[in-house]
Amino acid sequence: MKRRDFLQGMAVLGGGLLLSKTPAMAANGQPQQQSGIQIGDVLAHSAIVWGRSDRPARMWVEWSTDPGFAKAQRVRGPWALSPGDFTSRLELTGLPAGRRIHVRVGYSDAGNGEFSDWVTGSFMTAPVAAAPVRFLWSGDTAGQGYGINPEMGGMKIYRTMAEQQPDFFVHSGDNIYADGPIPAQIEVEDGKIWKNLVTPEVSKVAETLNEFRGRYRYNLMDENVRLFNSKVAQIWQWDDHEVVNNYSAAKDLSGDARYQVKSATLLQARATRAFFDYAPIRRTGPEGSERIYRSLPFGPLLDRFVLDMRSYRGPNSANLQTREGEDTAILGSTQVDWLLEELKASTATWKAVFCDMPLGLQVADGDKWEAVANGDHGPAKGRELEIARLLKGIKDAGINNVVWFTADVHYTAAHYYDPAKASFNDFAPFWEFVSGPLNAGSFGPGKPDDTFGLQVVYEKSPATQNQSPLAGLQFFGQTDIDPESRAMTVTLKDLNNATLFTKVLQPA
């Protein structure tokens, strides 16, 4: 059974633990921070700090280079109020580059002035001189009904990733599965029973704003996730499940009995608000708070380019159009032009492009196509036309050392795109690395398309589809850049931090 078809066909058993909808306020009147803190979009001298109160309260942030908070600087943040689900974020500025910054967040009650306990964390700022760089990436959290399983120890891969002490982590999309109910129990491989913690908001498909927000609140109930968030700066992008499976503006829900709300656009509006309430994201660009694609430099060895394949796409189709137009968009012309200009301007050794879907794998949406590839194996058509133009632009501009990182397909792989084996060959060869899921069903492998000469160098996927996290096929990727040789080493890893595949890339 395909991953994208599984959402409505899940075998579910009764029973389990139903958690209360809203945590009770503490008797002593102090604001509570059950969701922990998050740090996001870190640059050399600034970072986004995110927190959440349980009531109207003022956010306060203190930071120091000393873990004991000697000479800490205190910054007053915004009010956390009910229209934002009591979330708040603050941009810390004037930070020293290339240092571990210790941060703590507190809230003062808007009514009685009581101050919360501090929630502490730390993160690395970007260097300004060549220094070792380590980052992780993956995607797909709490999908296919696999939520927080106390018997497994919760979402354990987040603790494994925290132990690697990366400079930052990129969540490549599907931060939540708004369209996948999380049941109390699921019968999984070998007759085992997967048991979930459950809240009302995750027990059905998300339709209301509170239900979308409840998905993010649910993930933050996991102690592994909160630990990870407090120790590792993040970069968020999104994919389809933040809204609904295979989402585009043309998504038709008329035949899906699970949804009372049939307007995909209305669901997307609510999903977008929930995403930006909970993402520790830097808000940039002419589109203001709803723009997700952005560039984030990380010193002389690395520039980071975060793409959005979801917001500007045309409808899923047979994907065989022979001319570019609105119906063939996957990134959209504005984003393609932006990426080319940003890549041209980059002086960093490596250009990491974080893309929410693989470029050359066939990802079906029924009898239509969900990703770039169309299974035609011939000259670029449909959405491939836009990607062909992008890849040709990178080659024509002489841009070197571009590496792509993605998730989406729920297995891990290393892909080499070889123009000598491609139907469209006017591009420079490049690598694409795939990882995930973090805590979801394992699927795959996908079929490669020959248009861009995708060569599968390594892949690991389950023997049978939709294996639970109990099977151990949960994956993340680790990338290390050496400041002396400037070599980039990409390692694909599993839930237990076992090394599955390593590739050392030398800079041009």
Detailed description of the structure:
With 508 residues, the protein is an alpha+beta fold. Helices cover 14% and strands 28% of the residues. It has helices at 156-163, 209-219, 223-231, 264-278, 333-345, 383-396, and strands spanning 12-13, 17-18, 38-40, 46-52, 57-64, 73-80, 87-93, 100-109, 119-124, 133-138, 168-171, 185-187, 193-195, 197-198, 233-236, 294-297, 302-306, 350-354, 361-362, 364-365, 368-369, 402-406, 412-417, 430-434, 447-448, 454-460, 475-481, 488-494, 499-505. The chain has a 7-stranded mixed β-sheet with strand order 16-17-18-22-24-23-26, covered by helices on one side. The chain has a 6-stranded mixed β-sheet with strand order 15-11-10-27-28-29, with helices on one face. Residues 1-27 have low confidence and may be disordered.
Concise description?
This protein has 508 residues and is an alpha+beta fold. It is 14% helix and 28% strand.
Task: Write the topology of this structure.
Blueprint: E1 12-13, E2 17-18, E3 38-40, E4 46-52, E5 57-64, E6 73-80, E7 87-93, E8 100-109, E9 119-124, E10 133-138, H1 156-163, E11 168-171, E12 185-187, E13 193-195, E14 197-198, H2 209-219, H3 223-231, E15 233-236, H4 264-278, E16 294-297, E17 302-306, H5 333-345, E18 350-354, E19 361-362, E20 364-365, E21 368-369, H6 383-396, E22 402-406, E23 412-417, E24 430-434, E25 447-448, E26 454-460, E27 475-481, E28 488-494, E29 499-505
Parallel strand pairs: 2-14, 10-11, 11-15, 17-18, 18-22, 22-24
Antiparallel strand pairs: 1-12, 3-4, 4-7, 5-6, 5-8, 8-9, 10-27, 12-13, 16-17, 19-25, 20-21, 23-24, 23-26, 27-28, 28-29
Helix pairs in contact: 1-3, 2-4, 5-6
